[in-house]
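seq:
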Amino acid sequence: MNDTSGPRRAMVDNQIIARGISDPRVIDAMLQVPRELFVPEAARAGL
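struct:
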């Protein structure tokens, strides 16, 4: 699987924290949960 830590961090910074979400539990969950696994396998080719 591709390393998604950089894009995941950027997403959290630019979409979550930038919108004023500051609860460390939410931020930690967003950084830890591999959301790309929720994408159907047939659509994962571009991830």
